[in-house]
Amino acid sequence: MAGRTIDVDGTVWEVSPSGRVTNYARDEFGLVFTHGVGAERVRRYARYAPLGPRRWDAALRELPDARLRAFFAESQPEWTSPDGRLARARAARAGR
User: Fold this and answer.
1) What is the pLDDT of residue 33?
2) How far apart are CA 96 and CA 82, in angstroms?
């Protein structure tokens, strides 16, 4: 999936859609912030409602970096997020 990167306190995080679909369809999107690889990978999740475009790729593209950093500050660690549980369940089914 296409995404972006932001710098938060000297650490570069990749930002992309989480892929979780809710009852709100295009009114709400999930974001996943990822840093590191393999066993060192850290993920954080946040949700937002775009004011402009309703497609996730256009909505993510139009967000200013400052707003992405604000979403990061409000984000949840993977183990506390419904989006994180979905990602772990997908990985378990894939045998990872």
Assistant:
1) 94
2) 19
The answer to whether the predicted template modeling score (pTM) of the entire model surpasses 0.85 is: no
Between CA 37 and CA 58 the distance in angstroms is 26
Quote the pLDDT of residue 96: 58
Q: Nearest CA to 79 among 71, 90, 88, 91?
A: 88
What is the number of domains present in the chain?
A: 1
Q: The domain containing residue 64 runs over which residues?
A: 4-94
Euclidean distance between CA atoms 82 and 91, whole angstroms:
14
Please write the tens of the pLDDT for every residue from 58-90: 788 888 999 999 999 999 888 777 776 655 555
Structural contact between residues 11 and 26, judged by C-beta atoms closer than 8 angstroms: no
